[in-house]
What does this fold into?
Amino acid sequence: MQYPWYEILSHSDEIRQGDFIPECPILIPPTNLDFGEGDEINFHDTITVKMLDAVVVSQSCDLENGKVEIVLVCPLLKLGDFFEMLPEPDRLGKGRTKKLEALKQGNLPAYHLLNRDIDLGLEDFRVVDFRNVYGVNFEFLKTHTQVIKSRARLLPPYREHLSQAFARFFMRVGLPNDINGLH
It folds into this structure.
């Protein structure tokens, strides 16, 4: 039985986990701003807008039931761009082959590989970067997605696989000491 990876949405403001948001505007506040609750601040010259392709990682049930004001998204990289950001030994030759195999097997917890679908116009494999999670206002995101001509939505069971990989990355626990003396 075939399980398609994606469906394509057109001019839809419906948002679910696994939705691709091309050119998602991310607001980056200044690092040196000192303010308290209730302070009025002119952000006109201090906010940076970063445009990135993103995928929604907030749970669909929370989105559909209006239980969140902020939607969590992660950067969505083309596979080639993912390799470009790696150190040179991991970009070329055997290093690249090993890194790609680790990515395919899910052995790089900070990243998740998504398939391509040439028939739907998704010609590149994608890599979700869990190291950087951004929050976008839900109402703003719905308005933004209405004007997007065409965007992809990850379908089950691949959407749940993404959710599991995201959870696995965030539930990691670093121990202060490794287990020693076991041979």
In short: The chain has six helices and eight strands.
